[in-house]
């Protein structure tokens, strides 16, 4: 087993073997997180820049935490502090960051493909922390990590992704990973947000919630945004909830051991009822914790670390 | 000015149904039947063995960015690109800054053309004031000032009522309307074709339905008003079919296809490279093939480039933010020959017709023919020569081309305007 990538841009480009390498490295790092001293020196002396040109709290905090657990120095730039608001191009901003001797850059941007663009300009590793509606690879990694932790091997297991698929980078990254793990994926939601052309990914598309949820072992909910309603993608939040919101009654359609996931932040009472979000089937907070371990693995591997080293030293 | 005696060329002149190896004679800037023995002695002889001689190419859709954005291109450099591409007559779009919606701007453009252009550049005017789509521009005055058509290209008149009135009004001056067919309400934030590729890349899609709707609207308005509407850069298979059926009913519409829409598909966007970003966007292989069939059966009348220069730093951005458009003039002939002649078995004279006689006829321009008495606007090209296109070494101020660094086949060797060689395969002769 060896890791040969400098960047993490998409899950589409990763092989099954690479997904497994990240997951096993994350497993080892997760053990570290339960120790009293939750820190390893793996990236001591390295500087990681979090360039978040689109607002994000959770992902940025998780990357921040992951970098610090690896003893790296972290600098965070957001849309307000970066010069892009003053009209500076992304190329110039990125080249400045490199000239400041950063060792790695984590980028969140509303424009799909921008991490790929940066990877062509810069000589340092680029980690995609979400590019528009394209991909959010670390989220896909932490989600599938959480699923495997809870239900084991994903081959042939029924996974439903429910909600706004069209605009969701989380959905795209999850689809890419789940397909490689051999899961049986169904996308569900209103036809405006879940167009049939997603079948080209090798997944099923259904607009019938009951059929989709029937016997599923994982249901992953995506956040519904008011903005889509204003754009005419569905009539109202109320109608969305009445058609596709997950409640106790509908959760009964799932497999008895099914888990409920959500990348957050949750709209309680919209895509999911509160008692389900806090209930025993919910793994929403596990996702958050696993997000740190997975991001530690990604930062570690892309900065040149090898999976064997950490898996043996953490054991 | 010396007379010209072009020998041994394969002369292809669709306007006169001529396709044979022979000679061409030019005297006083005009095509003539022959030269006297004395004139032949003094004439400049061009041995065009192995070359095709055809009318200078005609492009009715170019953006020369003057006034206002001359850092991208100006009428001088744009006309140099045209010359290097074998074009002798081009029609420039009015989406300049300010837009060409009044006679003052048209006069400014005409002055620049007179001063700087090496080929024949003809202006168009806007349909609406400042291309805002709100009220009609002074179309009559624009006609008087010499525009050959009106268009809000780059934009599309959204109001059906306003477009209807534009048709009625422009018809009074026998002025064709050209329209960039795009329903804005369906393309908010859209940067590429809506389809499987956009779904995967997470880029906002521009559905072909947004083009088809306006094509249908324009067919209805052309039928209703009797005005001539020319549909610019058609990109969708459904549009081709709509146009085909309208033409079979005799509706006064025409349509163009660009070299990029017949050569490329939305698969090219895989790496988010803005050199493949244009409006309308590259679509699917099925759309591309339908446009080619449209050119074959006449549903699509002509090839036009939509030459749209942007600087490197403007194109070198996130795909979402990069401007739409690519260069076209210097690669148009080679790309079109490659797609239509080599890949789709069009006859060469047919392709020359799509790029000379037909566009001239659509815009009623005195061009696109080698008839005796016509202006001696001639293109000589080698249909077989392979060459590597270096956009940075080209004649444009910009270099935004998907064919930069590609090997193309078919190369312009000489461009002649009014009997004068303005491009010799290497350099463009500046005016004066
Ligand atoms: Zn246009």
From TrEMBL, chain A:
UniProt keyword annotations, A-Z: Pyrimidine biosynthesis, Transferase
One Gene Ontology MF term: aspartate carbamoyltransferase activity
Protein's name in the database: Aspartate carbamoyltransferase
Subunit composition and interactions: Heterododecamer (2C3:3R2) of six catalytic PyrB chains organized as two trimers (C3), and six regulatory PyrI chains organized as three dimers (R2).
Gene this protein is translated from: pyrB
Binding site residues for L-aspartate: 86, 169, 223
Enzyme type, top EC level: transferase
Annotated source species: Actomonas aquatica
Its biological purpose: Catalyzes the condensation of carbamoyl phosphate and aspartate to form carbamoyl aspartate and inorganic phosphate, the committed step in the de novo pyrimidine nucleotide biosynthesis pathway.
EC number(s) reported in the record: 2.1.3.2
Phylogenetic lineage: Bacteria, Pseudomonadati, Verrucomicrobiota, Opitutia, Opitutales
TrEMBL record, chain B:
Residues that hold Zn(2+) 1 according to the record: 61, 63, 153, 306
Record has Metal-binding as a keyword: yes
Binding sites annotated in the UniProt record for substrate: 63-65, 95, 279, 310
Enzyme class: hydrolase
InterPro entries: DHOase, DHOase/Allantoinase_Hydrolase, DHOase_cat, Dihydroorotase_CS, Metal-dep_hydrolase_composite, Metal_Hydrolase
Enzyme Commission no: 3.5.2.3
Keyword Acetylation attached: no
Name of the protein this chain belongs to: Dihydroorotase
